Amino acid sequence: MHSDTIKEFGTDALRFTISLGTAGQDLNLSTERLTANKAFTNKLWNAGKFVLQNLPSQTDVSAWEAVMDYKFDKEESVSRLPLPECWVVSKLHVLIDMVTTSYDKFFFGDVGRETYDFFGSDFADWYIEACKARLYQSRADSTSSVAQAVLLYVFENVLKLLHPFMPFVTEELWQALPERKEALIVSPWPQTSLPQLPNSIKNFENFQDLTRAIRNARAEYSVEPAKHISASIVATPPELMAKAPGQKKSFLSAIEILTILKREEYRQNMLQTDWPSGDANQSVHLVASEGLEAYLPLADMVDISAEVERLSKRLSKMQVEYDGLVARLSSPKFVEKAPEDVVHGVREKAAEAEEKINLTKNRLAFLKSSVLVSQ
C-alpha cells in the first residue's frame, strides 16, 4: 500500500498528509487529501522556481550586495519596508513563533496546517503576485532588490519549517538557492520573537478585502475576465498613503495599487486624480474599511440599457413563479390536505423568491437611476 502510494503521490506528499492528522485520532488517508498535498508539493516547487528566476545573477556582485543588505531582525528595518513586504515578513514572524510552539508541544497537525495556510495563501497567492509589479517594472534599478530580498528570506524560512515533513523537496530547493554552504537538515532553526507589525498586517488585510470586493463586483456584473475596467481607489489614513498638504482624500499611486490588485486588466486604466471622474452615482461604490474605498464606473462593466432590459425580463419571470407559489399557499385545500413538510417547503420557496424579487427590484432601480443621470 505505502509503496504504491509513494509511487503515485510521492514521499513528501504522503508524509505531509499523515502529519496533518489530529493526535490521538485515526486518519482517513483519502485519495483526495493525498492529491491535494501532492498539488501543495508542486506549488512549493513552482514557487521555488519563481524565486530562483527572479534573484540577481550570481555574477552581479552589486545586485547581490543590495539584496543581502536587507535585514529583518529589527523592528526599525521591517517598518521601513513597503507595505506588501512589511506585511509578509510580519506574518512570517508570527508563523515562526506559532510553529515553534506547536513543535515543542508535538502538535504536528497544527504545524502542518499553519504552514500550509501561510505558504499557500499569504506567500504564494498574495505576496508573489504583489511583488511582480516591483520585480518586472524595476529590473533595471535597485527598487527590485527589496522584493528579491524578501522573496529569498521568506522562502528559505518556509523551507526550514516544512523540512521535517517534506525533507526531499525542501532539501532540493534549499540546495538550489545561492550561497548554500550547508544542508538544510543541519541549518539553524528560524529565530523566534522577531518583529511583527500588527498595523501593517491590518492595512494589507484591508487591501485584500478591497481586492476581493472588486472581484466580487466584476463577477456580479458578469464582466469578462479579460475586459479592462477603471478602478478609482481612495485612501484617507496617513499610514495607507502619502498625503498631499491640504488634501482631505488622495488616491494611492498606481504602483501601490498594482502591488495589491493582481489582475492585469487594471494596469492600463488606473485613475490617479483626487476623486472619481464623472458622477459617483454612475459608479459601483465599494468600502473595504474606514477610509479605503473603490469606485468602479458602471459604463466600464456593463451595458446599462441592456442590463435593465435583461433584469426586467428576469423580474417578470420571477414574479410569475412567485405569484404561483402564493396562490398555492392561499388555497385552503392545499394547506389543509398537503403534507406538512410539502407546505413548509413551498413557504420557504416563496420567501426565497420574494427576497430575490426585492434584490432585483433594487438593482433595477439603481441601474435606471444611472441611465437617467447619464442622460
Automatic annotation (TrEMBL):
The keyword Repeat does not apply. InterPro entries: Anticodon_Ia_Val, M/V/L/I-tRNA-synth_anticd-bd, tRNA-bd_arm, tRNAsynth_Ia_anticodon-bd, Val-tRNA_synth_C_sf, Val-tRNA_synth_tRNA-bd, Valyl-tRNA_ligase. Residues 303-367 form the Valyl-tRNA synthetase tRNA-binding arm domain. Keywords: Aminoacyl-tRNA synthetase, ATP-binding, Coiled coil, Ligase, Nucleotide-binding, Protein biosynthesis. GO terms for biological process: valyl-tRNA aminoacylation. This is valine--tRNA ligase. Its EC number is 6.1.1.9. It catalyses: tRNA(Val) + L-valine + ATP = L-valyl-tRNA(Val) + AMP + diphosphate.
